[in-house]
Every structure is written in C-alpha cells, then in structure tokens.
Amino acid sequence: MATRALLAVVSASPNRCFISPSRITILQSLTSSSSVHFHRHSRKIHRIARSYSSDSDSSALQPPDVSRLAQTARISLTPAEIEECETKIRRVIDWFGQLQQVDVNSVEPAIRAEMDGRNLREDAPETFENRDSIRASIPSFEEAYLKVPKILNKE
Amino acid sequence: MLSTLQPPRSLSLLPLRRFQISKTIVSAASSKTIDTSVISPPQSQILTTRRSLLSGETTAVEIAKSYLSRIRLTEPQLKCFLHVSENVLKDAQEIDQRIAKGEELGPLAGVLIGVKDNICTQGMPSTAASRILEHYRPPFDATAVKKIKELGGIVVGKTNMDEFGMGSTTEASAFQVTANPWDLSRVPGGSSGGSAAAVAARQCMVSLGSDTGGSVRQPASFCGVVGLKPTYGRVSRFGLMAYASSLDVIGCFGSTVADAGMLLHAISGYDRFDSTSSKQDVPEFQSQFLSVDQFGSKPLNGVKVGIIRETLEDGVDSGVRSATQEAASHLEALGCVLTEVSLPSFSLGLPAYYVIASSESSSNLSRYDGVRYGNQVMAEELNKLYECSRGEGFGGEVKMRILMGTYALSAGYYDAYYKRAQQVRTLIRKDFKAALEQNDILISPAAPSAAYKIGEKKDDPLAMYAGDIMTVNVNLAGLPAMVLPCGLVEGGPSGLPVGLQMIGAAFDEEKLLKVGHIFEQTLKGSSFVPPLLANVA
C-alpha cells in the first residue's frame, strides 16, 4: 500500500479552541492490522500548475474586499458593519487557506453524497391551488403584477 | 404509507402513569441528583400516548391541555417557541372524534410535535428565525409536516433556531435566545436549539429539526435528548428552507431512541418534489425496539464498533472524554467488539464544511430579496430595494456567511475554495466508507464539551465553528448518525448532559436504532430529565 503522510495544519485561534493550535498531524501508514483503508493516491508526478502557495501571505488570491462582496451579494452594510465583517471574514478565509495544502491531485470533487440515479419529473406544468396564499405574501402587488421600483443602469 | 400500527407487543407493557417522568431528586447540599434504584428505562412517549388513547384512559384533548399548560409555565424561562399553534386543541378534538367513531388511527395520533421554524407549515408563521421572513406564512406544508399530519400528529408550534440554520447556539435567532433546560444560563446548542430544548422540557413529545453540520446532534447532546440525523436523501427536503443543499437534512428529536426512530419512519421516503430524495426502501424501524426483558445477556454480541481516534485527542473536555470512554465500555459489556479507527482526513472536514456551506448558502439565500415574500424595504431603485431589504432583514452571522460564500465562489476563486472543498469531501467519504466496511458503527463524542454559557462564543467565529468538529464530517459524507445521552458532566444545578454520537453506513438507520435502543435501555445510573421539570407537573 502506498504510504502517504497527510499534513493537516490547523491555524491557531487566539481564543480557546477545541482543535490543538498549529499541530501537524502526520498520519500513520497502513499496516494489515489497521482498520482503515487509506486513500490511494496516484504516484504520477503530473501536477496542476499551482497558482496558490501554501503560505497565505504570498497567496495569489486577493483578500476579501467586503464592500465589493456586499455589492455583489446585494446586501447593504453600514461602515461599522463593514469594518467588523472585514476582520472576521479575513480570519475565516485565512483559516480556509489550509485546504490549499491538501494533495487533491486526481481526486474527483463530490457534489453531494452518493445518490441513486437521476430522479427527474415529467416536464409538465401543474397548477398550484392555493394562489391566494402566495399573493398574500407579496409585499407590493397590483393585480396581476409584483410592483418594484425602476432599475438604474450603473456605469 | 403507514396505516394503523399495532404497538409492538415486544415493548414493555407495564402499566405506566401517563407522562411518567422519572423525577430527579435535587438535594440542596449536593449536586448529585440520581437515585439509581428507582430509575427505570425511559419509555416511548409515542407508544405510551397511543396506549392511553386506545384504552380510553385519557383523551387527546386532555393530553394536549397538559402539554399546553407546561408550555405556559416554562416558556417565560426557556423561550423555545417562536409560535404556538392556535389549533392544538382543535386538532386533538379531531383525534378524539376519530377514536369515538372507532376509526383507524395513524401511528402518530395525538402525538404533540414541535417543528423547527425553517420547515414550512401552511398558514403558520415560518420565519427561519429571521426578520426578513418575519410575517411569512407559507402556502404549503413541507412534505415531512404533511406526513406527520396525515398520520395524526399535532403540530404544537414552531421552534426557535439560529437564523437560517447558521449557528451552533440558537443565539443567532433574530427574535429570542432559548435557554437550556438543564441550566438557564447556558445555550441549548444550535441551530435546532428550540426543538431540542422543547423535547427536553417536555413541552412536546418529539420534534423536527434540521442538520447541515450537526444542528440536530449537537443540541441533542447539550439538552440530554436523542437526536437522529438520517442519511442524506432519506427524508424529503421539500419545504425545508435551504441553507446548504448538498448537506441539509431534516432530523428528529425524542426523549427516547424509539420515539426518534418512529418519527423518522413517519417522515421518510421518496418524494417527487425533492429530486435528491432517495427511492431506497424504508425498513420498519419499529422491529428494532425490543423490550429490555427480551435482550438476553449480550444483546449486541459481535457488533463491531469503531471509536474514532481523532475525536478523543487534545481539545476535548476531560469530562466528555471519560463519558465517551464509559459509553464505549458499556457497549463492550453488551457484547460489542471495540476497535480504534483513524480517519486521516478528519480535521479537514471543518474548513471544507464551512467553505461548502457558506458557498451554497450564498446562492440559496439570494431568493430573499424582498420582492415575492418577506419584509421589503422600499427604495427608489431596484438594486437598492434588494440591498436594503437584505441588509436590514438578515442578521450579522447570515450576512457574514453570504459574503464568505460570495468570495469563495467568485470568478477565479472557485477552484481554490469550493472545488477543493468538494475534493476534500471525496477524501472524507472514502475514509468513512473504508472504516464502515470494517465496523458496523463508528462512535465519537457529539461535541467537544457540554453546553456553553450564553454569550461565551458570540464574538469569535472560529471558536464557534470549532465546536462542530465532531459532526460536520458526517454531513459531508451524507451518512446517518444519532446522538443519545450517555452521561453527565459537572456544571449547572444538576450536571450537564453529554451525548454519544453513533455513525452508520448510508441508509443503515436500522442498525443505529438497534444499537442505540439497547444502549439506552440498559444504561444504568442516569436519568436525563432536567431539574426544571422537578417543579413542574
């Protein structure tokens, strides 16, 4: 069996954290007495060009620009909120950075848990009976339109 | 679909006083509360209710009145419910009328059920504990709710939660903070804290929650109740307000394994409205709930149990570690074969989970735009309307996660974050699969500690996220898991409960329920009834 050391570096949190800070866990190689089958990685040297380094300081990924993200996500934030968010988000994104160190060479991404085939329905429209209840939820409704303000083009 | 279910004769038929609750005896001088000589194994509330109704010992209306009265008495301290149904007595009356006419009764007839507020209930407010949906009343029932009603269950109300499921303490609700019935200064866990606390406090018999990263299992541990997370696809997600579509499931709370299992059976099954729901057969879980006198000396003889090494290392409270080890010994005494297993990818689950969850939630929550439902903040221009409605409607944690997700999915960043997290998900799935080929179930603590104090984790997101380490991997792998109370640690007026997590292979809830039921029924020396109830009828 191929022996692999998988480095899991967990970034330190200043507060009490339930994961040991900065501990590098080197996982044991498999023996026949072990009860776990280790994931078999290919020995191929072929690597995807690494555009990101493992050191987050020199990462090619730009740190989050909270104002721009808020605009993309259509959420208005006060300046105080932006400042608070920025600190927290940066810490979390830095923490995400440890995923960069995992060797995922030739590992297929899993969209979700395994499913038993495709469950598609007939492409046939069905009438929903309780339309009044839907209408009652609409904030601005003028038969038969949902009323919204105009859109201004942003240059 | 189930029709009338005869209560399995295999369960104990000792006549019980209705609402038999083993009283914890609290002495003023010490925190030791348990008189082990009088504790009998916990009894299923669903089956007790059924027997009482069928025998004429009581009526559904009397039962409902008793629970409503308990809600009135305990809600000011606990705040589990965002909304209590106005139709409880009316629904109970209908059950009594059916009994009077000798009509068939569904297996949940007269059972009072709490429903987490992110699960749609027609005509009843469903807000996901968010201001953006403050007055929203859905035009339809979630499939799980529809099934409960068809089987005679009564929805008692909508329970409090962290907004949109984002949180681990229920403090992120826009409306109120729920208290832990074991210690009112502590959190019930999250995000399904209201559902867990309501069952612990006997405000309802069973309840529904949702579990994306541990949101049923961790509160179950904190509140000393059973929390059951099914396999992804076992229960339809139709009507569950989506947080992370590849991780969300609806789960069940009960005061016994049998109750959680019976509720799960009721809501399971393929649903054409949820294309991720599975067509796998739903076995009759009830056959696992044998009565104690049928167990034999080694009822779990030969069952292989793997204890996950990475969950008992640094960072886990010593009280939790010893409770878990004692639980492992108990399983051994029942005949299980215990080995230690290692899941090499274990610690990667937490960052992978948060990347996936925030990414998917940023997409799922884009539907809350103030246009078709929910609170709208009027503006001169459409984008402003979106921005202000969402800015004012969403709480801080929700906004943060949406922004994190927006970042992770931005052009050029998708490979670095989301795709990478998906690849880590594959590694995690493979590790679990391998471990479950060698073992029937895996066990671990449900959380690194017992319940935190209210406010303790609010300011540091990473400290909050760290508490999910035991649970997120199971969601990434899509496996079923159950948490059941296994011991008490120090804290609060009578100790704080901790739960043991059992993880099974995909669609193997039957095995989990069998092992859990036998474990629970033979566990000596603990009664998981919070001290709050000692003073409430």
From TrEMBL, chain A:
InterPro entries with a match to the protein in the record: GatC
GO molecular function, one term: ATP binding
GO annotation (BP), single: mitochondrial translation
Keyword Mitochondrion among record annotations: yes
Origin: domain of life: Eukaryota
Cellular localisation: Mitochondrion; Plastid, Chloroplast
Substrates-to-products reaction catalysed: L-glutamyl-tRNA(Gln) + L-glutamine + ATP + H2O = L-glutaminyl-tRNA(Gln) + L-glutamate + ADP + phosphate + H(+)
Enzyme class: ligase
Keyword annotations from UniProtKB, A to Z: ATP-binding, Chloroplast, Ligase, Mitochondrion, Nucleotide-binding, Plastid, Protein biosynthesis
Enzyme nomenclature, EC number: 6.3.5.-
GO CC terms in record: chloroplast; glutamyl-tRNA(Gln) amidotransferase complex; mitochondrion
Function: Allows the formation of correctly charged Gln-tRNA(Gln) through the transamidation of misacylated Glu-tRNA(Gln) in chloroplasts and mitochondria. The reaction takes place in the presence of glutamine and ATP through an activated gamma-phospho-Glu-tRNA(Gln).
Subunit structure: Subunit of the heterotrimeric GatCAB amidotransferase (AdT) complex, composed of A, B and C subunits.
Family per similarity comment: Belongs to the GatC family.
Descriptive protein name: Glutamyl-tRNA(Gln) amidotransferase subunit C, chloroplastic/mitochondrial
UniProt organism field: Arabidopsis thaliana x Arabidopsis arenosa
Gene: GATC
Automatic annotation (TrEMBL), chain B:
Source domain of life: Eukaryota
GO molecular-function term, one example from the UniProt record: ATP binding
SUPFAM superfamilies, alphabetized: Amidase signature (AS) enzymes
Record bears the keyword GTP-binding: no
UniProt keyword list: ATP-binding, Chloroplast, Ligase, Mitochondrion, Nucleotide-binding, Plastid, Protein biosynthesis
Keyword Mitochondrion part of the UniProt annotation: yes
Amidase domain mapped to chain residues: 62-513
Pfam family, one: Amidase
Function: Allows the formation of correctly charged Gln-tRNA(Gln) through the transamidation of misacylated Glu-tRNA(Gln) in chloroplasts and mitochondria. The reaction takes place in the presence of glutamine and ATP through an activated gamma-phospho-Glu-tRNA(Gln).
Miscellaneous comment as given in the Swiss-Prot or TrEMBL entry: This protein may be expected to contain an N-terminal transit peptide but none has been predicted.
The protein's name in its UniProt record: Glutamyl-tRNA(Gln) amidotransferase subunit A, chloroplastic/mitochondrial
